[in-house]
Amino acid sequence: MPGSSSARPPMGLLLLGFYTPVHAAVVVLCASAPWLFGLSSGWILIALAGLYLFPPLMARTLLRLWGPMPQTATLGSRAFLRWWALAQLQLVFNRLPELEELLRLIPGLYSVWLRLWGARVGRFVLWSPGVVITDRQLVSVGDHAVLGMGAKIGPHIVVRASDGTLRLLAAPVVIGREAIVGGLTVFGPGARMAPGETSHRTLVLPPFWTWEGGRRRRPDPNGGPEPAAIPEWSEP
Length: 236
Hints:
single chain, 35% helix, 2 domains, 236 residues, four-stranded parallel β-sheet
């Protein structure tokens, strides 16, 4: 039955779920090689490259082969599996956020790393501690933007369509030039902050909403994905 929760997930979905533990095990093994097997200290550099460079470069390769991701995909479809593969490449950094915090210790390094994933990041962007990004290839941040502590950028959600099926909804999150994002702000897929805007802390921008003129604006009913894919939200 459509939308039945008892339906078996595709085998590819399960197999891709093992990427994160396998990747982590390989990185730890390479980093431990000088002590475990008496190999050269160069294996530590190989471990760091495997941790920080392999996932974004693989993601860029997959995006080059597959092209842009669709805004919506039925759970378990081929398009969903493509998104799932990209998500698994990034999962270790969401499970262990300290890995990203280490990159933020060096000015500009985190922005460069995000660009490797396919994100569009401008110059002199300030990333405060605790910023969380789930789909790095679907993020655009303008020059001189400031992201407050604990801000969360989530360019995807899973919603239940009118026919009962579960569907992925994914769209780029755009933060304009010189925008200041308040702490603990949450961006949903397709959310946008206009250039030069400043938001208060704990702001929530639901899917395809915009922060402009100091207030939240609803999505354009004539644009974006089909209405059935967008959940209902109301003003607090």
